[in-house]
Amino acid sequence: MVLLAGHILSSCFLLTQAVQNITIDVSLDPEFPLVGQDVTFVPKGLMIDVISCLWTKGEKDESFPIFLYHPPPKAAFYPKAAYDGRQTPSFDCSMHIRNVTFDDIGLYEIFKTRKIANEVGEAFLLVTEEKTPELRKPRSLTSGAIAGLAFGCIVGAILLGVMLISLLTMLPSTSDESDPTVVTIMPSTARSMGSNRPSHARMENQLILSSHNVRPG
After folding, report:
1. Distance separating alpha carbons of residues 114 and 155, to the nearest angstrom
2. How far is residue 95's CA from residue 83's CA, in Å, rounded to a whole number?
């Protein structure tokens, strides 16, 4: 019975501790630091009745403490195993890391011990050599670039028009002389032309008459 009662009390105590741990958000400034830059872990939550802040690095199974910090009025700083001299605490329990490298990539967690309820938060630090494509803002065109594009379009249109005109002038031109014209003579016209011409017999008669009228002289 005593063992059973002790087990029940222990379970209730663990349950109470789990309920008292409040999860808080931790932001990074900047969110994606470059190699050689500084980064600051800023935990959310309250700073009322905060006794201490413990920062760790790594997953829960392989977590290494960095430092333990007591905020004012009794400020105190206790470096731990993962501390290398670049980590600095602040009054709001934030952690500043100078000159980050690829070795700093990993999961960081803070444990804020308070008189009423403890707070727990974590953030993953990703260090890159250059800005990530997702964070790059699209560059807007300047007024000079827009004017240059407009001028280029106008010049291109003019050149295209000149080329078209040159091609049209190089094509062989068609004249009226090259087109064969078919002249159709109507039958009535042919008859009229034939009637105006004197026949061969009539011409011979006129020649005979004219020869008789000529007198020798």
Report:
1. 73
2. 12
- What pLDDT does 205 receive? 59
Reported as a single tens digit per residue, the pLDDT across 71-101 is 998 899 999 999 999 999 999 999 999 999 9
176 or 161, which is more confident? Answer: 161
Q: Report yes or no on 110 lying in a domain.
A: yes
Amino acid in position 111: F
Please indicate, yes or no, if residue 151 is contained in any of the structural domains.
no
116 located within any domain: yes
Look up the CATH number of the domain holding residue 101.
2.60.40.10
Return the closest-CA partner of residue 157 out of 167, 168, 149. 149
pLDDT in tens, 163-215: 888 888 887 655 444 444 444 445 554 454 555 555 555 655 555 555 555 45
CB 30 within 8 Å of CB 39? yes
Q: Phi and psi of 168, rounded to 5°? A: -65, -40
Which DSSP state fits 98? Answer: -
Most confident of 13-17, 33-37, 162-166: 33-37
Number of domains in the chain: 1
Structural domain that includes position 45: 16-131
- Containing 19, the helix (H) or strand (E) segment is helix 2-20
Tell whether 73 is covered by a domain.
yes
